[in-house]
Amino acid sequence: MVVLAALPTVGVDLLRERLDVATDGRAAGAVAIVSDPSIRVDADLLDAADSSLEVVANFGVGYDNIDLDAARVRGVRITNTPGVLTSATAELAVALMLAAARRIAEADAMVRRDEWARSDTDELIGRELAGATVGLVGFGRIARRVAELIRGFDVRLLVTSRSSGTPWAGAERLKLPDLLRASDFVSVHVPLTAETRHLIDASALATMKPGAILVNTSRGAVVDTKALIDALRSGH
Amino acid sequence: MVVLAALPTVGVDLLRERLDVATDGRAAGAVAIVSDPSIRVDADLLDAADSSLEVVANFGVGYDNIDLDAARVRGVRITNTPGVLTSATAELAVALMLAAARRIAEADAMVRRDEWARSDTDELIGRELAGATVGLVGFGRIARRVAELIRGFDVRLLVTSRSSGTPWAGAERLKLPDLLRASDFVSVHVPLTAETRHLIDASALATMKPGAILVNTSRGAVVDTKALIDALRSGH
User: Fold this and answer.
1) Which residue from A8, A91, A130 is facing B121, i.e. has the nearest CB?
2) At what angle do helices A86-101 and B104-112 cross, to 10 degrees?
3) Using one digit for the tens of pLDDT, what is the confidence trace for B19-74?
4) Which residue of A has its CA nearest to B38?
5) Residue A9: what pLDDT?
6) Is the dihedral of CA A128, A150, A86, A220 positive or negative?
7) Which among B7, B8, B104 has CB closest to A95?
8) Of A130, A132, B95, B229, whose Cβ has the fewest other Cβ atoms within 10 Å?
9) Closest Cα of chain B to A156: distance in Å?
10) CA distances (Å), origin A90, targets B91, B124, B151
């Protein structure tokens, strides 16, 4: 098999225990390819592997990097790894909400520049998550885990989701613009599809409360980076 | 009144609405002094204010900066502000646990140095709080709020506390060395007293699991900084 993915060393070692593993990037003759979302799995790559190829195992839950049609016509199966990173991703989202709220990276950099004593006392107080309104965009596995993790924080929880029905005890379902207008924290948890590309665009950002905190632990392209930079530069 | 504390501007403005406020540091003739834990309130300061002084209002829950005996003999009342920062401090402790676990300040600095693409994939994965063993040193208001905030994370919760009885549903009470030995995360929540000064010393640090995360949102002197630096340099 050939491993193209940037797997942690421990993962590659585990594969080597059972399989003949190549990490030199040459797909020719491979029975299996281990890819990750940063690697484009298209007709060219599948053809380079030739008819020996049986499976592409994508390391991650998203598979927007894979040309599913090209794989289907070549009889190559595609696997992904849903679930394993649900809790880790949800925890990262909460960590980033709290870190942004309390300006931890800024404070850390300030201490390392030896500027702590000179700091203006108003500067880095930040804000609390407790009592705030948190909007979750999307309400799949990861967002539900975020809701679970922050239930000790007494937040008002808003969610937007395609599926109907009450999604969670204590969560209010809103349309995206209403959720963005009301939330102090917005955390994005949607897959990247044609529909969700640049879901958070200039108009969505303009709808958000000034000073609200946006966390995106889903695919980067769900947020329009250029519009985000413009919004930040404008001081919104 | 004279304000010596590094109050946020909004606080000083609020005082000015009702009182004659001086912020030039001269205590002479003041009826009240607003201090904070960074300001030594001793006999010299109290005498500088003279017999007009009735109260020293300390901005913060701790009052280890105040010579209580000197205040008592001069008939000066001392106040502090317990409670108001309980939730904010607990939240900061959780934020620091998560930020350290997921190496957020390091990752932020790496992106700002434009070194993200070059990063080794093993480097910044970090660890989860979920499923970990969390040891709370002290179990007063702030530590209890920490326990409440992280109840969504499914941790094993250990506490050390002077008072007897079961302190919290699901928390195990241990002696400090046993707690330090078992914990992946240790968060310190004790007042600074003669007993707790350097409570976390070289021997306590050596007892901790290698790689465990220590968070101190209580007074700095509860941890022996020199011993901490030595432990970090040794790669413990």
Assistant:
1) A8
2) 70
3) 999 988 888 889 999 999 889 999 999 999 988 999 999 998 888 999 999 999 99
4) A117
5) 86
6) negative
7) B104
8) B229
9) 15
10) 17, 16, 15
Alpha-carbon gap, residue A38 to A221, rounded angstroms: 13
Chain A residues contacting B via beta carbons under 8 Å: 6-9, 87-88, 91-92, 94-96, 98-99, 101-102, 104-105, 108-109, 112, 121-122, 125, 128-130, 148-153
Q: What residues of chain B lie within 8 A of the CB of A104, using their CB?
A: 95-96, 99, 104-105
* In contact, B208 and B188? CB cutoff 8 Å: no
Q: For the sheet containing B2-3, what is the strand order?
A: B2-3, B32-35, B55-58, B77-79
Q: How far is B123 from chain A (nearest CA, A)?
A: 9
Give me the count of residues in chain A.
Answer: 236
Which residues in B lie closer than 8 A to residue A150 (C-beta atoms)? 152
Give me the average pLDDT of each 10-residue run along chain A (236 residues). Answer: 87 92 88 92 93 93 92 96 90 98 93 76 82 96 95 95 68 95 98 95 97 96 97 90
At B91, list the tokens.
């939240």
ipTM attached to this prediction: 0.81
Full-model pTM? 0.82
In contact, A154 and B114? CB cutoff 8 Å:
no
Q: Which alpha helices (DSSP H) does chain B contain, by range?
A: 9-16, 43-49, 68-73, 86-101, 104-112, 141-149, 176-182, 202-207, 225-233
User: How many Å apart are CA A113 and CA A93, to the nearest integer?
Assistant: 27
Which residue type is seen at A18? R
Q: Encode pLDDT of B114-149 as tens digits.
A: 887 655 556 788 999 999 999 999 999 999 999 999
Q: Is B153 in contact with A91 (Cβ distance < 8 A)? A: yes
> What is the distance between the alpha carbons of residues B2 and B29, in angstroms, rounded to a whole number?
9
Q: How far is CA A122 from the centre of its chain?
A: 32
Residues of A with CB below 8 A from B112's CB? 109
The alpha carbon of residue A102 is apart from the nearest alpha carbon of chain B, in Å, by: 7
